[in-house]
Structure to design on (114 residues):
């Protein structure tokens, strides 16, 4: 069964930290993995991506605050989020891009209070 299961979201005060995890199961030949987010009333937007070789890419709004990492043996991708701001509040979605298809997780809510 193909699954992307996210965990680690929650409520945090501005300036705080959270770590999101996403475990991919039943998916083979994964190339890129990463995170998007969708705030209320806005389109889903890229947060960070990481290739199977470890190359990373970040949205300008999170550079220097968020770090994406990956454990290929565990098919797991992580997003360490530091210095969180209220504008980081969104539903965060994990994705895994295999050869012919992109899989998505169900989303995890991150809420940053001011």
């Amino acid at each position: 069964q193909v699954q992307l299961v996210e965990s680690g979201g929650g409520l945090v005060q501005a300036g705080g930290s959270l770590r999101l995890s996403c475990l991919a199961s039943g998916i083979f030949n994964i190339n890129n993995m990463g995170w998007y987010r969708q705030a209320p009333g806005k389109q889903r937007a890229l947060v960070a991506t990481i290739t199977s070789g470890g190359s990373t890419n970040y949205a300008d709004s999170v550079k220097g605050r968020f770090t994406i990492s990956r454990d290929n043996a565990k098919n797991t991708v992580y997003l360490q989020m530091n210095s969180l701001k209220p504008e980081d509040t969104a539903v965060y979605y994990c994705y895994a891009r295999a050869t012919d298809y992109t899989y998505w997780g169900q989303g995890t809510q991150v809420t940053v209070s001011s």
Summary: The chain has no helices and eleven strands. The chain has a mean pLDDT of 96. The two ends are 40 Å apart (CA to CA). Residues 50 and 87 are 23 Å apart (CA to CA).
